[in-house]
Amino acid sequence: MAALGTCEQPSLSNKKMRSDITQGTMNDDDEFDCSQRAQLLRAVVLGANDGLVSIASLMMGVGAVKDGTKSMVLTGIAGLVAGACSIAIGEFVSVYTQKDVELAQRARRVRKNAGHEEETTNQRLKLPNPVQAAIASAFAFTIGGVVPLLAAAFIRRQHTLRLAVVAAAASLALSSVRVLIGGWMAMAITFGLTKLIGTTGL
């Protein structure tokens, strides 16, 4: 009987967990934190990888037809500014669209349930921030693009070595093997096509 009585009495921790689940605070907050962090992390990783591959490929393309350090560095700087602005605008539009979709979904849920509790829960959750995502992407793109720029800037005369260092610096900084293979392909294709066009005189 004592054992039976013990099983019938829930512990304080179980009561608190049930209360949290019923009120929607524990699961909602955990889901919100993870989704917000994942979104920001995605913007940073994509921005950094894009900066590395884009700027390194541009510099490799120019280096295929010009030996001077100045040409490569100026091309890298121009690509850095243009790329950072482009990825910031793209991320802003993307996240802003996601925000509009979430607002529409929540409005439909409130109208469908017509419940005060559902409306209160929706108001407690924050929406994605397009400005924050745009700034994070542009900053990460700039940091990624600076890597091949610095690698080329310190090698003045040895052209072949400069190209190899740019490719090696970008490869070492890429985040994963899959991205590394894609980065190598992008640099190789850009280098090859530019060399071909420069050779044929088109």
From TrEMBL:
Gene Ontology biological process terms in this record: intracellular manganese ion homeostasis
Keywords from the UniProt entry: Ion transport, Iron, Iron transport, Membrane, Transmembrane, Transmembrane helix, Transport, Vacuole
Region feature (Disordered): 1-28
Alphabetized InterPro entries for the sequence: Ccc1_fam
GO cellular component: vacuolar membrane
Topology of the protein relative to the lipid bilayer: Multi-pass membrane protein
Domain of life per record: Eukaryota
MF GO annotations: iron ion sequestering activity; iron ion transmembrane transporter activity; manganese ion transmembrane transporter activity
Reaction catalysed by this enzyme: Fe(2+)(in) = Fe(2+)(out)
Pfam families the UniProt entry points to: VIT1
Major site of localization recorded for this protein: membrane
Biased composition (Polar residues): 8-26
Transmembrane segments: 43-65, 71-96, 133-155, 161-181
Functional note: Vacuolar Fe(2+) uptake transporter.
Family to which the UniProt record says this protein belongs: Belongs to the CCC1 family.
UniProt protein name: Vacuolar iron transporter
Native source organism of the sequence: Gossypium raimondii
